[in-house]
Amino acid sequence: MSTVDNRTTPVGFSAIRDDRVLRVTLTNPSRKNAINYDTMVALGDLFGTVGTDRAVRAIVLSGEGGDFCTGADLANAPAEAQRGITPEITMDAANRMVRAVVDAPVPVVTRIRGAAAGIGVALALAGDLVYAATDSYLLLAFINVGLMPDGGAAAMVAAAAGRARAAELALLGQRLPAAEAATFGLITRAVPDAELDATVEAAVRKLAHGPRRALELTKRALNEATLSALDTALAAEKKGQAELLTSPDFAEGATAMLTKRKPVFGD
Fold first, then answer.
1. Using one digit for the tens of pLDDT, what is the confidence trace for 37-92?
2. Three-point CA angle 157, 186, 263, nearest 5°
3. 257: Cβ contacts below 8 Å, ≥ 6 apart
4. HSE-up of residue 111 (Cα within 13 Å, Cβ side)
5. 204, part of any domain
6. CA angle, corner 178, sides to 176 and 184, nearest 5?
7. Cβ atoms < 10 Å from Cβ of 154
8. d(Cα 166, Cα 169) in Å, to the nearest integer?
9. Contacts of 183 (CB under 8 A, 6+ apart)
10. Selection from 157, 151, 178, 155 nearest residue 169 by Cα
11. pTM over 0.90
């Protein structure tokens, strides 16, 4: 078992190679594994270079504690702005991270407990096999703070569940229980919490001893068949989100969320 270097984000995630499996775990449980700019950059770096380690046959992506990932860490936004990190730079990092997960040459297995919200939905769905505890949920919460889905969520949700379901999730910003997400084809399977780890490990064991090149080409073909609109969605999301991140509605939405009150958006 070896630890992968992730010096650029020492508290954002851990990456440990366990035989043929790379286990990537978001490690910000006090913030429900919300991720900041540095974490997005480092995750993009990690997934972008995983193909250089031929011993890795599968990746498990999970969150420490009771949640997978509740999206971008808005509490860290002022400090990032002081560093000169603009909305466009943030969106580039988010898009690169998601694209790197999708393009990883080995299968990525996502394990969801609790919440997968905001960019956490896109990060989760970027995996090839997505397993969730039945009491977990997906939440495209962007509209609730004056934003729009990003990280390719528009393309990935629509590709799996159709335009009508994607519109409902994106425009209403309501929780989708994991069992319903499985029924709609958004995730691979929802299982009782007590069975989640065993379910994930069964899939991982099979992948870890499979033919690496065949797995890579199969994954690539599936992505080309189902995610041909991903780059278009990422570009549209970057343009729209960069505008919205500087809007009065987002300022109101973020403040309301952090102070736990209902937002009052402008006319």
1. 999 999 999 999 998 999 999 999 999 999 999 999 988 888 999 999 999 999 99
2. 55
3. 74, 144, 145, 263
4. 25
5. no
6. 75
7. 26
8. 5
9. none
10. 157
11. yes
With left for phi above 0 and alpha for psi between -120 and 50, is residue 71 left, alpha or beta?
left
Residue 171 lies in a domain: yes
Find, among 41, 6, 38, 48, the residue nearest to 25 by Cα: 6
The token pair at 78 is: 């002022």
**Please, are residues 228 and 235 in contact by the beta-carbon 8 Å criterion?**
no
Q: What is the DSSP letter of 85?
A: -
The closest of 136, 120, 126 to 179, measured between CA atoms, is: 136
What's the domain range around 117? 2-194+211-258
- Is 266 inside a domain boundary? no
What token pair was written down for 26?
A: 């978001």
What does the alpha-carbon distance between residue 127 and residue 141 come to, in Å, rounded to a whole number? Answer: 20
CATH of the domain at 182: 3.90.226.10
Number of Cα atoms under 13 Å in the Cβ half of residue 36: 19
Q: Indicate the number of domains in the chain.
A: 1
Tens digit of each residue's pLDDT (9 = 90 or more) over 106-137: 999 999 999 999 999 999 999 999 999 999 99
Q: Is residue 223 part of a domain?
A: yes
CB 153 within 8 A of CB 121: yes
CB-count exposure of residue 150 (10 Å: 0-12, 13-18, 19+): buried
- Structure token pair of residue 258: 């952090």
Backbone angles phi, psi at 227, to 5 degrees: -120, 35
- Helices and strands (DSSP H and E) totals, the chain: 11, 10
